[in-house]
């Protein structure tokens, strides 16, 4: 499968000033930008910056960023699912995962996340993919936002909807471990029926187990 990447960019007028949303951004450009110290949801900022550079270098890897001048203030990542996850077990070349999305507190409430997702789906190549995201409540910044788990889940779901991802059921044990966790999926318009059926078998791997 050919993993073409078509760059798009837009300006977003926020309450904190204008920022640029752009991508997929190549590793060389990511390396030349500063990484905001408030991007701490998944690992320390310097390590997450390095991880984004490594993802961008992957054949299928895609990084879309929100940038205030020369500083990355938000991002979303797309890459193949972790080999340890069930989603990689089908060896599907056209299944990619929205692995992480994060925006610094300063710009939250300005639809930055929604626009990161909207811009990422402007690339015609995304129509070739089944795009998934697995949402786990323990990654959510409920302390920083003051929201409870269900309020945060509602916001996450609305944001993912902006990128065309919709809730789908699964029997994945980690997702089923808490009712707020969920699987969200977008089927690209060029995804064939066979791929959808293969994906459905990944969604429900335990249906015949007693």
Secondary-structure map:
Layout: E1 8-14, E2 17-23, H1 27-32, E3 34-35, H2 45-57, E4 62-68, E5 71-79, E6 95-103, H3 112-120, E7 130-135, H4 142-145, H5 149-162, E8 166-168, H6 173-176, E9 182-187, H7 193-203
Parallel strand pairs: 3-5, 6-7
Antiparallel strand pairs: 1-2, 2-4, 4-5, 5-6, 7-9, 8-9
Task: Give a structural overview.
With 210 residues, this protein is α+β, with helices and mostly antiparallel strands. It has one domain: Gcn5-related N-acetyltransferase (GNAT) (Aminopeptidase). 29% of the residues lie in helices and 27% in strands. The protein is built from 7 helices and 9 strands. Strands 1, 2, 3, 4, 5, 6, 7, 8 and 9 form a 9-stranded mixed beta sheet that branches. A hairpin with a 2-residue loop joins β1 and β2. The protein is globular, with a radius of gyration of 17 Å. This is GNAT family N-acetyltransferase. It comes from Heyndrickxia acidicola. Pfam families: Acetyltransf_1 (PF00583).
In short:
By secondary structure, this protein is an alpha+beta fold. It has 7 helices and 9 strands.
Which bin fits the share of residues in helices? Answer: 25-40%
Summed up, the domain count is 1
Helix/strand order, N-terminal first: EEHEHEEEHEHHEHEH
| Radius of gyration computed on alpha carbons | 17 Å
Assign an overall shape.
globular
Give me the secondary-structure category: alpha+beta
End-to-end Cα distance, whole Å, is 37 Å
Assign the CATH superfamily. Gcn5-related N-acetyltransferase (GNAT)
Instruction: Characterize the biggest β-sheet.
Output: 9 strands, mixed
CATH topology: Aminopeptidase
Weakly predicted, low-confidence segments: none
**Portion in beta strands:** 25-35%
Residue-averaged pLDDT, rounded? 94
CATH class: Alpha Beta
Treating each run of at least 4 consecutive H or I residues as one helix, how many helices? Answer: 7
């Amino acid at each position: 499968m050919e993993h073409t990447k078509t760059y798009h960019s837009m300006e977003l007028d926020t309450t904190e000033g204008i920022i640029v949303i752009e991508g997929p951004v190549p590793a060389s450009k990511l390396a030349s930008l500063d990484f905001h110290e408030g991007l701490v949801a998944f690992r320390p900022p310097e390590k997450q910056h390095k991880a984004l550079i490594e993802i961008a270098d992957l054949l299928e890897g895609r990084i879309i960023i929100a940038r205030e001048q020369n500083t990355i203030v938000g991002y979303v990542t797309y890459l193949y699912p972790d080999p340890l996850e069930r989603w990689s077990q089908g060896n599907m070349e056209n299944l990619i995962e929205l692995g992480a999305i994060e925006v610094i507190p300063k710009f939250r409430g300005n639809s930055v996340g929604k626009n990161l997702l909207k811009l990422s789906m402007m690339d015609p190549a995304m129509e070739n993919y089944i795009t998934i995201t697995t949402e786990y409540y323990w990654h959510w910044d409920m302390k920083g936002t003051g929201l409870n788990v269900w309020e945060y889940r509602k916001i996450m779901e609305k944001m993912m909807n902006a990128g065309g991802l919709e809730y789908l059921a699964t029997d994945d044990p980690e997702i089923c471990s808490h009712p707020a966790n969920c699987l969200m999926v977008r089927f690209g318009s060029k995804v064939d029926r066979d791929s959808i059926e293969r994906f459905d078998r990944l969604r429900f791997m335990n249906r015949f187990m007693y």
